[in-house]
Amino acid sequence: MAKRKDTLKDYREGLVGSRLEKIQAALARFSHARYSNITGLARDVAGYVTILEAGDDERKPNGERAKKLRPVSHVTILRNEEYRALLNSFLSIEQEAGIPRERVDQALLLENEALKSKLRLFQNKLVDAYADWDLVDGRSFVNPQEAKIYDWLRTALSVMDNMHKFSPGSFDFVTDPKGKRGMQPGLQAPMGLAATLEEMAEIEHARGALKEYLLKASGAKVSK
Predict the structure, then answer these.
(1) pLDDT of the residue at 77
(2) pTM, to two decimals
(3) Which domain of life does the protein's organism represent (predicted)?
């Protein structure tokens, strides 16, 4: 009679072998990390192995997938002698690699404080740079000098529009290249050419820019 196969034993051996490979992959992933104790390392390794096992389960046919896949516990990693041996080997190599743990931790703390100081300095510079600017809609800023220039532009355009409005017939907009009565194309005033076609186009660009700026300054959304 053939000896009955111990399927549970085979399953456990297969699981241990699979997890040993995944733990080795996790340790390779954390090769540049620094750990002060085995428990912290075991927690990270357990999380990484859980992700790998979830990926393995996802690739199985629907009928073979686990109904409820439990995360790998760091306690399981620590209690298994083979798993723990890998972690201890990783830590011993890390300690032999050079700098004592206390010096590494102290260096990291100093570096962190230096970065915090640089960040505070940068924040202060930003505050100083925008101190005279007006905040719009809680997000963007308006340069006061820029605002003054746009105010001047608005005044100039308003004066030009009023000249047309209150002196009808005094200005003639000529677009024909041959000209009207020999006039050069552009805005013709009673005594001659006031603006060329190119200059009139620039005026319209300025008018559009002013409109966009006023919408921005009011906090309204600018449509493109």
Answers:
(1) 92
(2) 0.41
(3) Bacteria
Q: C-alpha distances in angstroms, 188 versus 31, 153, 162, 198?
A: 79, 22, 16, 13
Three-state secondary structure call for residue 218: coil
On whether the CB atoms of residues 69 and 54 are closer than 8 A, the answer is yes
Q: Please state whether beta strands 134-136 and 186-189 pair in parallel, antiparallel, or not at all (unpaired).
A: unpaired
Asked whether the beta carbons of 91 and 41 are under 8 A apart, the reply is yes
Instruction: Name the helix (H) or strand (E) containing 140.
Output: strand 140-142
Q: 5 to each of 10, 12, 16, 36, 94, how far by Cα in Å?
A: 8, 13, 18, 44, 42
Q: Are 23 and 45 within 8 A, CB to CB?
A: yes
Phi first, then psi: give them for residue 65, nearest 5 degrees. Answer: -75, 150
Exposed/middle/buried for 151, CB within 10 Å: 0-12, 13-18, 19+?
exposed
Residue 49: phi and psi, rounded to 5, are: -65, -40
Burial state string for 50-75 with b = 16 or more CB within 10 A and e = fewer than 16: bebbeeeeeeeeeeeeeeeeeebebe
pLDDT in tens, 44-62: 999 888 888 888 887 788 7
| Eight-state DSSP code of residue 89 | H
Give the pLDDT mean for 75-86: 92
Question: To which residue do tokens 């002013």 refer?
Answer: 210
In the prediction, which pLDDT does 127 show? 60
Predicted pLDDT of residue 35? 85
CA distance 206 to 161: 14
